Each structure stands twice: as C-alpha cells, then as structure tokens.
Amino acid sequence: MYYQSTRNPKQVVSASQAILQGLAPDGGLYVPQSFPQFDLNWDQLKDYSYQEMAEFILSPFLDDYSPEALRACIDAAYDDKFDDPKIAPLAKVGDRYHLELFHGATIAFKDMALSILPHLMTQAAAINHNDKEIIILTATSGDTGKAAMAGFADVPSTKIAVFYPEGGVSDIQEKQMLTQKGANTYVYAVKGNFDDAQTQVKALFNDPDLRQKLADQGAQFSSANSMNIGRLLPQVVYYFYAYAQLVKAGAITAGEKIDFTVPTGNFGNILAAYYGQRCGLPVNHLLCASNDNKVLYDFFQTGTYNRKRDFKLTISPSMDILVSSNFERMLYHALGDNSDHLTALMAQLDQDGLYQVTAEEFQAFQGISGEFASEDETKDEIKQVFEANDYLMDPHTAVASRSYRKYLDQVEGAKAGVIVSTASPYKFPATVLQAIGQDADQASISERLAKLRELSGVPYPQAIEELEAADIRDKIILSIDQMEAEVLKIVKD
Ligand SMILES: *Cc1c(COP(=O)(O)O)cnc(C)c1O
C-alpha cells in the first residue's frame, strides 16, 4: 500500500513515511493509492473487540508495520485511558444511535486518533531508521491541542507545540491545555482566529529555510493535525465498529445500509466515514453537519466553495472553520484522482477565496450532502433531546442531531441513523446548562460541572476530576509573526 500527494502523483511514499512527514513536501495531503476491499463477515466481526477491529482495518493500510508493532501501537493507545471498555460505545437515543467518541483522556473525539498517533509515529521513525527529533506543530480550534499534548506528553524524541486562537476556545478547553503535564509540551494562545493559526502553521511547515534550520539541529517537523494520514486511518475503525455493534444488537441485518451524520470542522471525521464506505462499509448516506460557519453546506448545495465570509464564533467552537483542510482529499477523490485539476482549484482558493466545480464533477458527490444548525437550533436540540430522552448532548453533537432531523424532513424512507457524538457535555457546561434553561452565568466552572452532574446523573469523567486538581501554567500570548521565533526556541530547548 502506497500513499501519494493530492498535488503530485509522483510524490509516492509508504505508510510510515507518510505518517512521519505529516504533509507532503509539495503542500499536498497524502492519500491511499487504492482502498483495500475487506471481506466483511459481520457474523464474526460483531464479536470483535475495538482493538481487534482496529487491527483488522488498519493492517492493510499500514502494511509496512509488522503485525506485532501494529498490535503494540493499538494496545498502547486503546487501554484504560478510555473510561468504557468498548472504547467507542453506541447509545440508543430515541430512534437514533449515538456513536460516543468521547470516552478518552480529553473527553472529545480527537482522542480516538491522537492516542495512537504518537505510537504510530515513533514506530515509523524506527522503520525508517530516522533518529531526528520530531517536532509536532499543531493549530487547534480547541480539542486537538489538548488531545495531541496528552498523546505526545513524555514520548521520547518528540516535542509538541500547540497554538490556539486567543478567546476562541472554551474555558474548559483552555484550562485543559494549560494544565497539561510533560516537559516536551508547549502551548500558546495566538492573536487571531483558528484559520489564521492554521495558515501560519502550514506556512512554517512549508518554509524551506526553517526546515533546513531544524535539520541542522537534528530535528524535523511533523503534524498531528488531521492533515496527517495517521490521524485519519484510525478514525475509519470506529465506523466499522459501530456497524458491527448495530448488527450485534439486532438493530440492522448484515449488509443493510445506514446513515452517518458527522459534526464537521476540518472534514477529517467524515472523510474517515467516506474511506470506510470506499472499503465496503454499507453506507446509505453521509451527512456533513455544520454550524453557522456553513461553507461546506453551501458547497454541497451549489458546487462552489467560498471562504470569503465573516468568521463566526459559535457555541460549537471545534467546528468554527472556513477552510476545511481535509476537504482537499475529498475533492481529489471526487475529481477522479486528478492532481492537476485539484492543484489548480487549491491555488484558486488561496488567491481568490473560492472555487467552483463543474456540474459533472458535482455529480460525484452523490451520497454525501450538507446540513447545518443555527445557534438557536443547536440549543433547542440539546433541550428537546434532553426532555424527550433524558440524554445530554454537547453542542457539537447537537449540531449533528439537529442536522439529521432537518435532513430526514426532506427525504423518504429513513434508514438506521447514527449520530457521531464528538464531545462529552462536561466539556461545554455553560452552553449545555443554558440550553436546558439553567441560569449558569454567575457560576464558577466547578459549580457548573456539579450542576451538570446532578441533572444528567452521569458521573464525572476522569479528565474532569483531574482538571479540578491540576496546576495551571502561565499563559503565553503570541502574535502570528512571533510563532516562528518561538518554534526555533523550542528546538533549542
Ligand atoms: C474536531 C472536532 C470536530 C470536527 O471534526 P473534523 O474532523 O475536524 O471535521 C467536531 N466536534 C468536536 C467536539 C471536535 O473536537
């Protein structure tokens, strides 16, 4: 199995090399040259543990890892850092199913991939006899940062620097990052929004002078953002696992097609569902759910991707994104793996802020569409579902839940529907309490958490208990153009 850059078919590398590099040197993203076709015997798969399913799905994708090495990565990642032995349990909520991806160390779905990525990366360095120190640069809209710091903390031969938008993440998210332990972890608030931070991280990555300065000091960059294929592939696993759980519960028969609705930001999570479908997972429809930053919804309506609009800060901050990095991969596949055309469209997006696909190309997006939920709809959804089902959702999950509701109003013949549930409500206590009519304005973080526990009856996840006790480091605020100097300081540190 080989991976090639979306922007140059001649840039071809192995799985381990793709994971080490993060981004291709031409600025493109690595994509698999073909999709393995799995022999899906659901009668057997339904009894697989999460770890067994991970081995089954990841083996053909990571074929330059030995079976023992891969199994070691899986076992190190999916252990008791997760507070549910199923790792990604399915909850029945009314007549839908919620695939709960928030049982890891930071109570959001980034843990699913970021608990295994550091192991895949150090293993990749061993496979390639690479003895450089790996410097991870990560822009975060809130959740990736903490999950990446937790994943890489104290992993030998690695350092990680995280940049988040100042004022653009929740109190809890910021506190989670500022309390992270690990001498190899660095975190900065950046004056700008997420797109500003992400654009600068990409620019640092692709700066040949900076790369050389790092190489001179025995270091190299890699990325823990979902541009890294090592983030994406582990996410394919849970779509198969969810399907197997539905078969096991008797909710569907083997082979029956189902819908997935994914609350979307950088388009990594939903792309993993699409990759699952390309590998034979029986999917009826993929619904890409957006908040008020609904660039993707507009694309799926019109075939025009237009980032020229106001950036809105919403109550689902991890989805506040106008340039969804992984959409480049989706577009590449939809264009029939045409690098030249893809590169031209990406250049247009850079220069003009928009691009448009032809009517014929737009046809290739059948089977996937967009919906969105406004701020009021999102809060109303949290309330409705809590009142009807006694189940509390975080705002990101609520965007997906409302979007699927809106989608079903427009189509005939509903299928079994899985809502991909990306964060614990404990991560956004103020918003959730307000949505269900509790006045929490004056309350401290601790008081809000206690109130949520009382209302939901769900015990505190370990991450919340630790947060209450941990020491907070000093907050460092940078302007965008101070980021490069700071990175060089870290390399010397
Ligand atoms: C990151 C994140 C998303 C968006 O996922 P993408 O893979 O970037 O599309 C949605 N919800 C939560 C809680 C997240 O942390």
The CATH topology of the domain at 90-107 and 230-424 turns out to be Rossmann fold
> What is the averaged pLDDT score?
94
Determine the N-to-C terminus distance: 37 Å
Task: Give the names of the bound compounds.
Answer: pyridoxal-5'-phosphate
Q: Report strand order across the widest sheet.
A: 4-5-15-10-11-14
Total helix count? 22
Q: Under the CATH scheme, which architecture of the domain at 90-107 and 230-424 would be assigned?
A: 3-Layer(aba) Sandwich
Largest sheet: 6 strands, mixed
- Indicate the proportion of strand residues: 15-25%
Shape: globular
Number of strands: 16
Unreliable segments of 5+ consecutive residues: none
**What is the CATH class name of the domain at 90-107 and 230-424?**
Alpha Beta
Based on secondary structure, the structural category is: alpha/beta
- What is the percent of helical residues? 40-55%
Radius of gyration: 21 Å
Organism: Aerococcus sanguinicola
Domain Threonine synthase N-terminal: 3-78
Keywords: Pyridoxal phosphate
InterPro entries: Thr_synth_N, Thr_synth_N_sf, Thr_synthase-like, TrpB-like_PALP, TrpB-like_PALP_sf
